Amino acid sequence: MPLIKMQNAGKNYLSRTFDLEINPSDFILVSGDNGNGKTTLIQLVLGFTRPDHGIVESKKLKIGYLPEKTMLPMFVKVMPYLETLARIKRSKIDQHLLLSFNIPIFKSIHELSKGNQQKLAIVSTFIGKPDLIILDEPLSGLDYESTHILKGYIEKKKEEGMSFIVSTHQPELFIHLADQHIKL
Amino acid sequence: MIRYFYLHLFYSKKRTIFILGFIIWIGLMTLLIYHDEPIFEQRLYSEQNQVYYEQIMRSLLMLLCPFFVVLITMDHDQQHLKPMISYFGRKKIAYLKLIFYFLVLTWLYSMFFMIYHILPFYLTSYYTYDTSSYMLFLNLYSDGLMTTILVFILIKDKHKAFSILIALFYVLYSFLLEDHPNIIFFYLFPQFSAFFSTLTLAYYYKLCYICLGLTIYFFQINFETL
Fold this sequence. Notes:
The complex is a heterodimer of chains A (184) and B (226). Chain A has 184 residues and is an alpha/beta fold. Chain A contains 5 helices and 8 strands. In chain A, α5 links the parallel β6 and β7. The radius of gyration of chain A is 16 Å and the shape is globular. Chain B contains 10 helices and no strands. Classes of the chains: A alpha/beta (184), B mainly alpha (226). Chains A and B meet through β5, α2 and α4 of A and α1, α2 and α5 of B.
């Protein structure tokens, strides 16, 4: 039984439709030019928008979602934010990832640089036990070292059997992991 | 989850704003009710003084409460809730948000209620505890719930500044109900009014109105594009 199944699903403003089946431990890579529907595909998978035509069937899933633009509560301090997330998701913070990213944990989120906010958003996405992880432009704002830390972490999680949808402008970094590559 | 909402709503700057708001409120009340008349004179006209206090406080509360409520609820729709919605689901987040804001409103009105009783008790000699204030606060609390639901339905993150219009609407509508106590106006928006609060059915109508608002809110939650 797939986690999510899309049949001919699309929006009126897009010229194409999507047929997609996401199974447990699948890695789906989405790439393409701006405005071709990468974010729309993700919105459809998340159920944030309904298709104008076609069908999107989904189990009740816990999805870890990293949006294209960082969406964080700006005036909260980093550590209380992560601890609260871990508590409500009944899980733990991945200390290894947090330390590797070297995020200043005692600052407020609005005081962090764009790159550090992105790193924090990545750490928070992996908190909990999500059935599927969706990363929309995860490399945006990341330096060379952090990009490789993230790449290594995703490889590790994929080996552990986690399902992924990754939308990126640098597909060459993840192509070796991909079970499906959707070029839009 | 409640803790998450708490962290987001009561961060340090906003906490300061709320504390300042309460200090201004207490200061304003002190200015209005403080009497430098001798104790015997205050007690001689205790009934008139008490009526004056109740009337002025009712007007003040009706003016200020909607602004407090709107200040609290205007941030309800935040972009950072999207990753939480993807993890927990729309309905769960909507329910928990509702519970959180109702708890905050309960706390807010309890604070108002305490100040309403405690301050004149220490500052005046005429004040006697009167149970009729329960009804006033029950009415104001239900008005607070109606305002909250209106904000939840109408105000989204991109135009949250418009929420101040809801507070203004509440204040202007209370003037309208005072000047033209027409039952049709009460049917349209059943906010507290001295004319209709004596009707028992008014409370049931208000309850139904709140339930209708909640139904619309959950309908909207299920179908809106995030």
